[in-house]
Amino acid sequence: MRGGAGFFIIFMALIIKPLKLIMEKQKSVVLPRGMVLPFVLITSCFALWGFANDITNPMVKAFSRILMMSNFEGSLVQFAFYGGYFAMAFPAALFIKRFSYKAGILMGLGLYAAGALLFIPASLGMIFWPFLLAYFVLTCGLSFLETSANPYILSMGPAETATRRLNFAQAFNPMGSLLGMFTAQQFILARLNPASAAERAAMDPEALHAVTAADLMVIRNPYVVIALVILGVLAVIALVRLPRNEDQDRDIHFMVTVRRLLKHKRYYEGVIAQFFYVGVQIMVWTFIIHYAVNELGLSETTAQGYNIAAMVIFVTSRFISTYLLKFVSPGRLLMALAIGGLATTLGAIFLQGMAGLYSLVAISACMSLMFPTIYGIALEGMGSDAKIGAAGLIMAILGGSVLPPLMGSVIDLGSVAGFSATRASFFLPFLCFVVITLYGYRTFAVHSRSGE
Question: What is the pTM of this model?
């Protein structure tokens, strides 16, 4: 709890000064003065779901070893995790439409905490599926949070600066991710029993039971701590009065709204691009550990250090890219970064040794801008339809559920067409970047002319 409170104080200090500079120096207002406290509180939620995302990615490898499962079975963690986003996105949107963004955020925090606390009975049961249920409930909460917080941030100022405002808020998401990665490295991976799956299989049942129980408790403890932090944030947001910034029409015209949204190619192509973006993000960050372990023989704890380096690069690039949006259109910058993603992914596939790992880490610099930019482009000019439209973009997070197990099944093959299976599996991220490149191109070269 003390560490979580300290992180929240540091987070507040980091965000308030840049906000003042934005309000004082920008000719086109990014954030009106009266929105500072609401913006800070809602942006803290971005960091919280970043923590959940990136403490979870290394658990694919951890569960595979602890419970002696294949890479495909371990990647079902991601299937359950991102499946919750998919399942709850439209119910969350309808809930928000009926009540408010604040109500959606409180519901999301409540489900997030409940899912994290479910790790207690899951660890006691010592079987895999209760952990999958806990992840699913947790991410139902994250689906509420993202469906609420992203359009709420877009609504907190002028429409012409909405994408920049969302990119700024999203820049604090990877700060939570860094804390999640550090927690996974120092408080989970470093404390697990080092015995491999093969060594565990050779243990007598009593020794295996003791080792497995101890390791699952190590995984459980950080989730319980974050649940307590989340409940504290929930209490603060519940007590603070937040502006509504939303239309007063609470009637739900679901199919009418969906038909309007589907008339805009920029929107539904954005949903497709978001599916592949989230897929590539989760694949890259989940399988950095597999790449470092399988290709270079590094330990899981050392490999997680490269995951942390990737996130530091991601954070830095997010702030740089947000600044560049003052001078370059979102679609053009999105396309340029996606081309960079293509090049660095090819490096991870074809370069040997540390050069390949460095290329894999460098992919994060190219991914930094993508989620909020695709989101902002797709919802631009949607007005009150953005609440339902946001749900479609959150449902696209299903890409993080579907594609990592597919990549894990490729890694399980051992070798593919003369490549190691680990390297060959990165052709999947390459194809994802092709889709994102096309969306970036169409955004500035096609949709800007047609108005679709």
Answer: 0.72
